[in-house]
Structures are given as structure tokens and as C-alpha cells.
Specification:
Elements lengths: L6 H18 L2 H5 L2 E9 L2 E4 L1 H11 L4 E13 L2 E14 L3 E17 L2 E11 L5 H11 L4
Parallel strand pairs: 1-6
Antiparallel strand pairs: 1-2, 3-4, 4-5, 5-6
């Protein structure tokens, strides 16, 4: 017998799947977590649609990043939901090991489609302590640069 997940557990799995796909450089898997036309917003820029989402992940893969999402709070309203998760971005720094590059928060809007939860919008706000150099690199990636 197949077990069904509660809405809370299914949304937590969706959020974790995003981090796994991003860290694995699997842009297609990450894009599949969004509804058609859904996307990311950050630093005043937006990326919508599977091609642009996949390109973003392909652009960050060689940075050896690890996305940690924690302290998630979820609110479900039938077939829509919101979630807020803290974000820490770690990277391997040569001769220094793992270092925290940036911290922020995801503000998610989610919808249930065919009994599965998907992101309709993921807004990333960066902590005020995020270094300008990192924010500049993120803007370049969000704008479609490499």
C-alpha cells in the first residue's frame, strides 16, 4: 500500500528537492518543481519558465555550492500554500574548506497540481550582511550572464 504524504510533508519534500536539484546541477529537475510560468525573483530580477530556470542552475553548478534551507514555516489553504525558509549558501573555498557565502530567506507561493505541490513563485531576499561581491555575482546570474 502506498503511503500518502500530508500537505506539510509534501511541501517540505518539494523545498528539499529544490536544494538537491540546485546542488546537483540538475536544471531540468529543478524547473520541473515549478508550475508553467512559475519562477524565481531576487535582487529586483525575475526568472520564469523552465529554460531560464535550468540555465540558472547550470550557471551555478561549477561554484560547488550547497544550499541549506531550514526553519521552514508552512501555511496551507486548501490548494494553495505559502512557506518561508531560511537559506544558507555554503561553498568549498580552496585551502579553506566549506564557508558560508550568503544567507537569506525564501518566500514561497505554492499550488497543488494533480495532487502534487509545485512552486508558483520563489522570492529570495538576501540578508543585509551578504557581501556586495556575492550580490553582484547573483545579479549577473539572474540577468542571464555566466
Amino acid at each position: 500500500m502506498l503511503a500518502t504524504l500530508s500537505d506539510d510533508a509534501a511541501i517540505r519534500n518539494l523545498i528539499a528537492s529544490y536544494a538537491h536539484a540546485a546542488d546537483d546541477g540538475d536544471g531540468d529537475a529543478l524547473a520541473a518543481l515549478f508550475v508553467d510560468g512559475g519562477g524565481l525573483e531576487s535582487l529586483g530580477l525575475a526568472i520564469n519558465g523552465p529554460v531560464k530556470l535550468a540555465a540558472l542552475i547550470n550557471g551555478i553548478y561549477n561554484a560547488n555550492l550547497k544550499h541549506l534551507q531550514l526553519n521552514t514555516v508552512i501555511t496551507v489553504d486548501v490548494d494553495t500554500a505559502t512557506a518561508i525558509s531560511d537559506l544558507m549558501v555554503q561553498a568549498v573555498v580552496p585551502e579553506a574548506g566549506w564557508q558560508t557565502l550568503a544567507q537569506g530567506r525564501y518566500h514561497d507561493e505554492l499550488v497543488r497540481t494533480d495532487a502534487e505541490w509545485r512552486f508558483s513563485k520563489r522570492v529570495i531576499t538576501w540578508h543585509r550582511g551578504t557581501p556586495d561581491e556575492i550580490a553582484g555575482q547573483l545579479r549577473t546570474l539572474m540577468a542571464g550572464g555566466v
